[in-house]
Structure formats: C-alpha cells, structure tokens
Design goal:
Blueprint (H helix, E strand, L loop, with lengths): L3 E5 L4 H14 L2 E8 L10 H11 L3 E6 L1 H14 L11 H19 L4 E3 L8 H12 L4 E3 L1 H4 L4 H10 L13 E5 L2 E5 L26 E8 L2 E5 L2 E2 L2 H13 L5 E7 L5 E7 L1 H17 L2 H19 L6 H13 L5 E8 L3 E8 L7 H4 L11 H9 L1 H9 L11
Parallel strand pairs: 1-2, 1-4, 2-3, 4-5
Antiparallel strand pairs: 6-7, 7-12, 8-9, 8-13, 9-10, 11-12, 13-14
Helix pairs in contact: 1-7, 3-9, 4-5, 8-9, 10-11
Bound molecules: arginine.
C-alpha cells in the first residue's frame, strides 16, 4: 500500500508542485491541509479555487482548518504574556504559527491514517526546524518529508514543472519577495531586502501604509495578561488583534527592519510589519510595570528572552518551554487594567497612561505633595545599614578612585 502523507499546503507554487513531485518521485498519496492562521486565505481567490489546484496537482483531498481563534488565544496570548520579542525586536510572527499548523497536520495525519507529514520549506530557514521538531514532539512515530529540500529546482524550474503537469498556478517566474503572514503580522524576505545596506522598498508593505496622519488614541483593557477590550468594546482576541492591526497600521506603526540570527547559523536581513503585536506587547509591558512586584518583574525580564529563543528555535512543544509557561502564567494573575496608546503618524507609538485595580503604585508613597505618607525618618537607618559594607571597605581598604584625575 502506498505511503500516505499529509502536506502543509499554502496554495502557492512550491506546495502545489510538492504534491505532484512527491507522488512522482516517492510514490506516495498526498492529503493537503490548509491551516488558516489569519493569512487572509480568501483575499485573492476562494478556498474552492485553492482546493481545485491541490486536486489538479494530484492530492486525494484538500482540507481547510480555521485556526484563527486557536492562534490568537493559545499562541499570541502566550507571546503577549512573555512580552516575546526575539533578539529584543521580532514578535515571532512565523515562529508562532508553525506549532499551530503542526498540531493540525498531526491531527489530520491521524484522521487520514497517514504515516508522514510534509512541508514546503527549504533547507536554509527556521520553519523546517519548527515543523520537524514540533511534529516529533507531538507524534514521535510520524516521518517528516521536505520535498523542497530534495528537488533542487529553481523557481523557474518549478513554474515549468507546474505547467508540464497542468497545475493551474498564478505564480510567474519572477517572484520578488517571500512573504509569510498570519494574525500576528507579516514577514518579508528576499529581493532587494537581501542587501542589508539597502533601505527597504515600500511596495511589499500592506498593513502599515499611512492612511491618515491624525494621531489616534486607543485604550486596551487586559484581564490576567490577556487583551480583552478595545476602547471599552469587549472583543475575542483574534478580532481585537485584527482591529488593532487596522487602527495602528493606518498610522504607519509596526515596521521592523532587522538582521537576525537564524537557528541554522545564517544571519539574514528581514523586514516585518506587525502593528498589533508590537503595540500589545508594549502596552502589556507597561501594565506590568504598574502591577508586578519588583523581584517577580526583574526575574520575568530575565526569562522572557529565553522563552522567545525557545519559540523561535522550534521548541514550542518542549519541557523547558512548558515550565516557563507555568512561571509566566503565575505572573499574569494580577495583570489586569487599562493602557492608553497614542499612535502618531508615521510610525510612532507613545503610551500615555495606565491604570489598574491591582496597581502596586501607591500615591501616598510616591507623592512629594502634602498627602505624603512615606516615613522619611525610617530611611536613615535603612540607608546606613544598606551602605555599611561599602563604608567598612572604604575605611579599611580604600576606594581606588577616590581622587579625581589631575589635569
Ligand atoms: N525569519 C522569520 C522567522 O524565522 C520569518 C520567516 C518567514 N518565513 C517565510 N517562509 N517567509 O520566523
């Protein structure tokens, strides 16, 4: 009996060619799964057209899975809790969607009795790592196939291959950018972007074009670390993210231009547009400043980059990531309140206010006005004992730089 494979299908050139190529070269049966993580599946063509392409390529079936809610509530929400920015910048757009897709690949592999899953990634990127490590974490028995790593075709070869097999593709031999998108934003690579000195071209951006230069103010409400309302209107997280992408993006906010370290040892220059992701993380961080106890806050800040690295590196389903999630969850219990965001075109975000019923900010303790409740006299003993070790050291051994340099 032929081996059956479930392929992560995007509807694009590479994964369409992959269907036929695997049938021809490896003699397998292919089931396509298109996972909607908010990439606007039906923006330019209907799912029926995409499905027809998969079937024309030789797929047994093409399944559409709507995973937008899951992407938002289980993946973006965790990224917000962890203030997740890889290398202090990138909000993990593609890295967050891969484990969502992996879950559904494994699920459909069980449903269709498949022995393997497949993806269309090349050998140079992070996404292959995320697909493969993720699949093996959920299903150690499943094989993972990567036809695009084996076929040695250029883009032009793939277009010829599709024509030869009558696969109705829209792609042409010149494709300028490689773009991956989902609810959390868009990742853009290739073309002129590959020269790190060249300013990024304007054309691949779609979410962050300035529509209106008037400043916009938005209030985000969080409950236990999760954004739950915009300007007082309660929204499911997926809808809230989509709305904020529109509002913030229209002021030009949310672009990133960075050189990053891929897991496979390559530095690459990429640009991103992720208005809602960056704005929600900034707002969440600001609210944490108000409500987290100092030691928890400082320790959390040390663990956040580790969480982001694990997720970037394909370790979403791993014991350390799960342990860190438990820590993050515990820290989020009191992260409830509101944050005022002010977007000023082009591309500036200022946080202008925050409040919380759980705030540790105490006006009486903080103020220099008449309402001051802080016991100033207590500081005398505190500071003396706090500095006692240094004072003793100075008296017995001397501070090295006690006298200013003579000029
Ligand atoms: N460099 C980013 C990451 O590794 C984006 C990858 C985008 N993927 C793509 N197939 N264009 O997460």
């Amino acid at each position: 009996m032929a081996k059956r494979v479930v392929l992560a299908y995007s509807g694009g050139l590479d994964t369409s060619v992959a269907v036929r190529w695997m049938i021809e070269e490896w003699g397998v049966e292919v089931v396509c799964v298109l996972v909607d993580v908010g990439q606007d599946v039906e923006s330019s063509e209907s799912f029926e057209d995409i499905r027809a392409r998969a079937l024309a390529a030789g797929a047994l079936e093409c399944v559409l899975v709507d995973a937008k809610t899951e992407m938002a509530e289980e993946f973006c929400a965790r990224a917000i809790a962890a203030n997740a920015l890889y290398e202090s910048k990138y909000p993990l757009v593609s890295a967050l969607s891969r484990p969502v897709i992996v879950r559904h690949l494994v699920d459909q592999a069980r449903r269709f009795g498949a022995q393997a899953v497949a993806h269309g990634c090349t050998g140079k990127g992070n996404d292959q790592v995320r697909f493969e490590v993720g699949t093996h974490a959920l299903a150690p028995d499943l094989e993972v196939l990567a036809p695009a790593r084996n076929w040695g075709m250029t883009r032009a070869d793939s277009v010829d291959y599709a024509r030869k097999w009558d696969i109705p593709i829209k792609a042409t031999k010149e494709k300028i950018y490689s773009i991956d998108e989902n609810l959390w934003g868009r990742a853009i690579e290739c073309g002129a972007i590959e020269d790190p000195w060249a300013a990024p071209p304007e054309e691949p951006y779609t979410l962050t074009r300035v529509v209106d230069t008037a400043p916009v103010e938005v209030t985000v409400r969080f409950e236990s670390g999760v954004p739950v309302a915009l300007d007082g209107e309660a929204l499911p997280l997926a809808a809230l993210i989509a709305r904020l992408n529109g509002v913030a993006g229209a002021t030009g906010y949310g672009r990133l231009d960075m050189v990053e370290n891929r897991r496979v040892g390559i530095k690459s220059r990429e640009v991103y547009e992720c208005p809602a992701a960056l704005a929600l993380i900034a707002a969440h961080r600001d609210l944490e400043d108000l409500v987290l106890e100092r030691d928890v806050h400082h320790e959390k800040a040390r663990l956040e980059p580790r969480w982001s690295e694990l997720v970037y590196d394909g370790m979403w389903f791993s014991p350390l990531k799960e342990a860190l999630d438990a820590f993050m969850d515990e820290t989020q219990r009191h992260v409830t309140g509101e944050v005022r965001l002010r977007f000023e075109a082009p591309g500036l975000l200022r946080i202008v206010g925050r409040r919380s019923p759980k705030a540790l900010y105490d006006y009486g303790l903080a103020t220099y006005d008449a309402e001051d409740t802080f016991r100033h006299a207590d500081s005398e003993g505190f500071v003396r004992i706090y500095g006692l070790g240094v004072q003793t050291w100075a008296a017995r051994q001397g501070a090295k730089n006690a006298t200013p340099p003579q000029s």
